[in-house]
Amino acid sequence: MVKGKLQQPHWRFGHLTARILPQGYPAVEVLLLNIKEGGGLIITVPLSGKELSYPSLTAEIPAAHRAERAIGDFFGIRAQGHPHWQTLILNSEAWPADFTPLSPTGLGQREPFAFTEVVGEGIHEIPVGPIHAGIIEPGHFRFSCVGEIIVHLDIRLGYQHRGIEKRLSEMPWPHTRFLAESASSDTASGHALAHAIAMENLLEITPPPRAQYLRTMALEIERLANHIGDLGAMAGDIGYSAGAGLFSQGRGAVLALAQTLSGNRRQRYYIKPGGVNRDLTETGRQSLALGIRNLSQQMKELIPLLLENPAVIDRMEGVGHLTPKMAKDLGIVGPAGRASASHYDARASFAHGLYPAYTAVIPHRETGDVLARAQIKTEEILSSLDIIAHLLEKLPQGPIAVKPLEDKLPGDRVGIGIVEAWRGELIHWITTSPQGKISRYAVKDPSFNNWKGLGIAMRGNLVADFPLCNKSFNLSYSGSDL
Amino acid sequence: MNIPLWSIIKRGLVTQSESFPDLPQEASGLPMVSQTPCQGMQCRRCMEICPMGAITINDRQITLDRGLCLGCGLCYQNCPSETLTQDRSTRTAVLAREDLILTNQPKPNKPVITRSLPFLRSLHIREVSTGDNACDLEAIASSNPIFDISRFGVFYVASPRFADALLVTGPVGKAMQEPLRRCYNAMTEPKIVIAAGVSSISGGLFRGGYAEANGVPNIMPVDCFIPGDPPHPWSIIHGIMLAMGKI
Q1: CB contacts < 8 Å between A and B, how many?
Q2: How far is CA A166 from the centre of its chain?
Q3: pTM of the full structure
Q4: Which ipTM did the prediction report?
């Protein structure tokens, strides 16, 4: 059934997870998304038998690969016939093999993690991490190489597993927003917005128009800050220090705007269910508008320094190539997906902030290399600047939040929030128990599937190009580890 | 090729000349306890609203633990007596965990401890991230042209073998505890540990779960604490300079 649906136009695989039903036994759930109508479909398969397993979808839907392994980790449920069955997140020696945090039964055993062994003449391995040389998150990369060429890259994550999904179902719900947006704190607005929409679905409330404008702005400011930062970091990775310095200043300027809007450079704890946490004053609005104008001017000067520079193009072109077919199969989202011919942008499909009524320019490329990802990011920077400038002009007056909210959530309901964060489609999926408690809180960070894409894109490239390629994807380790 | 080099040169100096300026008017900042008397147990609004349980009220004594505080601002937005107010200072780092606990009672005078200051002129830092990437980004920002931490003789280095200090961000979950310990052991004496961000101080939002992500002090002794979620780059620089003994 899942496969049949996905063969129809406009349907895509959203997420796959499991939960414990009120009856006490687990069920596997698939979320399919209709990106044309902005709706979705949840298929629940209860597993009431003794055998904690289900037939694997991965062979037919490769995008389910990592999700199935995560279910194995957290519930001890096995995907029969999975091509690469082993632990994904709880893979450190720190976790006992029968420890399944989200399933009270703890019946399942996890297969221990093993790196893919590549054999052949002249093949050698380069292990890197978990602690890296730069200021980035921990994760282990194992390159199998012939000379300087990467044959295979194994990515082992899970070092930052903090038990977020379980904690979210244990907290009183008004406090969950703080933890939900810490899933990957560099995407605070994206996660907070997805959480807020899921909660608003459950509570059946609609935030006032002014709040919708402010939320959309917060989301776009976050996209702007991170994309500009990424371009700077990519310039740094190819040894172009002037570019790195100039773009990091640009990022600083955006963070100052974020502070004006939300009170915090990282826009933490700004978006909340029912609205936003603080209002924007008239002076704040004017200084934001001025800041955006200056930044647009600055970006128009800076972007050619990077992307019209032959030395830079030479270094980025053809590196880290991900074919459109592979990107589609693996469910790659966000700028990385759109650089490989995908047209999917959650802003055009699902309701969040002012979207999809407010149409954003959605750039895409067919080439799928580092240069394409950099070009997508530059175009999104320019379109975000236009969006913010336009929203500031049109910002309506009125309340900024619905209040007061119910203390108790309605029972036996599902709330889903889908947001196009700067890395791509972000899903928060909340299920409540008959008593009105959160019984399952699933988070799908855009990085979750994209990590697989990075591993594939590196094949046949130089080891020395890994930092550049990694930066062009710029994935979140903590969002994937949860 | 026509690269407008002039657009690079004309930018001039962007580095902030004033060290540790206060946050601008529109920024939130951390809460602080003022001398205005608290309404005590009849109010307790802040206690109920705080998602972290960072505030306790006992009779008329109010206690705020910045080692737990996210800086969400709900407490001072809802305080009727203005006992809890905004603190826009970026000089927020402290050397002892108990100094993060603020009250409206006078504090006993602490004996002055003289410490040896081997890093007074320069410090090389190994940053280890364990689950709070916003805090990493602020650490990176501290070395950008605007804050430019290098002018104070501070550098981020690639290996623990080169490092004098370990700067940890994030709550250190179970899987990261051993790598962090090994990183610490790979550093030569003398060495110091700096915990940046509320999650590294106490585990923050993540504490108390099965992943045992309860902060750095559970793993190793910490010499300097930088509160905030994430701390401002100036606060990170403040913590580093405090640990060096420059302040």
Answers
A1: 176
A2: 19
A3: 0.93
A4: 0.91
